[in-house]
Amino acid sequence: MRTLTTATLASLLVAGLTPLALPAAAASAAPAKHGDDFNGDGYRDYAYSSFSARGGGGVTVVFGTATGPGSAQQRITQASPGVPGADEADDMFGEVRAAADFDGDGYGDLAVAATGENGSHGADQGAVTILWGSASGLSKGTTLPNKNPGANNYMGKDLATGDFNGDGKQDLAVINESMTYVYRGPLKRSGTTSTVTKLDKTTSFYATALISGKVNGDKKSDLAIIGDVVSPEKIASDVWFIKGGASSLTPGKSLRLESESGNGGSSERGGDGVIADFDKDGYGDIAIGTSLYSKHKGRVSIWYGASGGPSRSARLTQSTSGVAGSPENYDEFGSSVSAGDVNGDGYADLAVGVRDEEIDGKEHAGGVHVFKGRASGLSGAGSQWFARNTAGVPGPLTDYDQFGGLVRLRDADGDGTADLYVSAANSLRLPGSPSGITTAGATEFDAVPIDGLLQ
């Protein structure tokens, strides 16, 4: 799953350079319930990218409690004890992250990319390190073997976790240059791995983002690979479906997300995505925002799941009936998407950021749409719109706030409805309720940057 960062989020760095003392948490022999429960206490934790003194990157972890982020935290860089590599400028350690219990010991682990890591094959070769969970949080690390070393390959450009063969062990998908490599679990601290599968669609398809989830209703995770399709005549963006299987991954069909005439060259036009069951038919649906669509007006593509894999598709834009606003150049509708059940009706709902929406003359003010899941799927009917000028939303409407640059839906307080977390100059939390997202009780949220809430 892609995890985005912004300069405004980085400014919310939680202080603390060394791990704090944490209460001991006894993990069971079973895999962790939550892949991002790094200390095994039953609560989801928060891991976000931060800066190191030498500029090589780092990860700050804020440990969760029954009511959300707590005060205990730790910070990890490549200079931390037991973490491979060196803290070097521009390594970008921690910019991309994905969480799962890779070794099945009951503690969540964190896969961390360092896309700017140099290696024996040249600059920006990239690397991926697994930071291991324990009763005291993340500690030490193991570097994955690089199956495609080369200069400017940026291994770890995106990561996604899932049980792709249904054996109960978590696997890790990694973009390395234009291809995707799936490392079978369990991943071990010794550095040994099971089989590694390479997924390479065509020489003109360049993988840019990964989404994992269950699409066809079986017990195996599936993989959706977003990528640029580049030729001298056209730049396009596709999503390629890969079906999970007990013995192998099966390449499936593709859906065109968008295309544009041009002179070739990678555009990385694919965007943020998620898999969730919006129509509650038992099959996961793929939702992908492509904010660059049609002069940056943006749109979201929905590819609905079925027993044979994804089937029918639909599009959402600001011209969809029932959706507030209108599509304008550089709105960036679909800049971020996230799924969760905001009203507790059992249907997954979809939050869509529009980070550069102009509002009342304020440039790049931004806003967020929330689309409600129902048996017929997602539509504009009953959708909600939130911006700084929405009654009850804290903070002033200003230029360049980019409200909605990153959105997350998560039920952090355990009340059965997902809350909406929104990045902006001062990030916010808007609670879920039986009627949907509400501004009643909306608060500025600065305990942890929004990118610490992994999908």
Defining key terms:
455 residues, mainly beta, 4-stranded antiparallel beta sheet, 2 helices, 2% helix
Written description of the protein model:
Helix content is 2%, strand content 35%. The strands form seven sheets. A four-stranded antiparallel beta sheet has the order 4-5-6-7, with no helix packed on it. The chain has a four-stranded antiparallel beta sheet with strand order 8-9-10-11, with no helix packed on it. Strand 25 and strand 26 form a beta hairpin. The relative contact order is 0.10.
Instruction: Please tell me the overall pLDDT.
Output: 89
Biggest β-sheet description: 4 strands, antiparallel
Instruction: Classify the oligomer.
Output: single chain
Uncertain segments are: 1-27, 261-269
Tally of contiguous helical segments: 2
For the biggest β-sheet, the strand order reads 4-5-6-7
Measured as a percent range, the helix fraction is under 10%
Helix-and-strand structural type: mainly beta
How many β-strand runs?
27
Q: CA-to-CA gap between the ends?
A: 7 Å
How much of the residues is beta strand, in percent? Answer: 25-35%
Annotate the secondary structure layout.
Elements: H1 7-10, E1 46-50, E2 58-65, E3 68-76, E4 93-100, E5 109-114, E6 128-132, E7 139-143, E8 159-162, E9 171-176, E10 179-183, E11 196-199, E12 205-213, E13 222-230, E14 234-243, E15 250-261, E16 273-276, E17 285-290, H2 293-296, E18 299-303, E19 313-316, E20 333-340, E21 349-354, E22 367-371, E23 384-386, E24 407-410, E25 419-422, E26 428-430, E27 443-444
